Amino acid sequence: EGCGMAAVETARGVLMHRVDLEDGRVSRYRIVAPTEWNFHPQGAFVRGLAGTPASDTGEAHRAAALLAHALDPCVACEIRVRHA
Fold first, then answer.
1. Residue 81 pLDDT > 90, yes or no?
2. Which residues is 17 bridged to in the sheet?
């Protein structure tokens, strides 16, 4: 029984692995990828867009796309700008 955890700083951000062991076997294995940190509601993407003027939809879209690509989500993504 026990657990192990490792965190490494990668080019895209922090990558974490955690393993739980029971009776000499892996009972649970979790990975938290940089994408989960960067695109979290309190993560770098949202913080980076805070204060971006939204009156110009095209400019807001460009700013969001540039930041998303800079953070490299490592998955396909689509940016949509909606007025609330």
1. no
2. 6, 31
